Amino acid sequence: MLFWVIAAVLTLGASLAVLLPLAGSAKERDSQDAHDLEVYRDQLSELDRDLARGLIQPVEAEQARAEIARRIIRLGTGETAAAAPGTMPKLAGLLSMAAVLAVPLLSWGIYSRIGSPDLPSQPLAERLAKNPADSSVDELVARAEAHLTKNPSDGRGWDVLAPIYLRIGRFPDAVTAYRNAIRLAGETAARQAGLGEAMVNGAGGVVSAEAQAVFEAALKLEPANPKANFYLALALSQEGRKPEAVAMLQKMQASLPQDSPWRRAVGQALAAEGSRPAAGPSEDQVAAASSLSDEDRSAMIETMVAGLDEKLKQNPRDAEGWMRLIRSYAVLRKPDEARAALRRGIAVFGADSPEAKQFTAFAGTLGLTATE
Q1: HSE toward the beta carbon, residue 341, CA cutoff 13 A
Q2: Which stretches are annotated as coiled coil (predicted)?
Q3: Measuring CA to CA, which residue among 228, 12, 214, 176 is closest to residue 101?
């Protein structure tokens, strides 16, 4: 009942705040018109007296009388005015008032059908005090954030919150949480691999050099960690080292338990690699390169990079090919060519395309920008 009383008072106040100015303006307008009409009538009387005393010529008196009559007509009142102009302002005022009154009436009618005025309020403090089993994910995150605001050195709290951030797509927050957990609670393979996954997702799927270092740190703690191995295989694929990526994925597939959730991801990655044309060196080329001198090996690599560049000119819609080319030029310490490849790749897909954003993020991990 209290809700309806408060709602009625607020509705009345809001309606009066709009209606009173409308009513006041109409009264002010009518009062002003009446005053002007009285002035014009006095002018007509004065004009007749001047004409009777011979102070003004008949022709001039007639012109002045016509001008005063025109002013009276413009007021929308008086004996010479038509009825319609005088009723229009009143009609507009009535329509405005009706519209103002209709809004709260319609709102009340709709709310009475679909609203829940008897539903008890749910303050944040009470929601955070609920049993965690009865709380939503947002409430659990808010509870954890409130706790960590008061206790920022709670490594266990950061360790719990980090994978939740990762699951709900808050990747920068996940990176921060994982770093805090590692700093406060120590390194583990799971924390390092989680940090790397958050970094990869935050970069649009690109495995940066920093993320690779994090995954390698996870493998030092747990050599069979599936997450770290999977993303390092992805990094090899992004670098154009397809044979190595496939070999790593096949090794994972053979060693993973049958009930491992990573078996499906590895199978999909192998299928994708099988359908993707090879853009890097073959196994024979790799073996041949290992037996060459440094100068000959560099020449061979440059030849393969030039071949990749030529393939991209013929098939420019290969997004992964552009990333391999950018990285290859960066590895060869040719930053100008790497930036040129970045600009060319962006131009192919458009500056606002997802591919262009991915190229830019990937180049950023190599210390490159398109405008440098």
Answers
A1: 30
A2: none
A3: 12
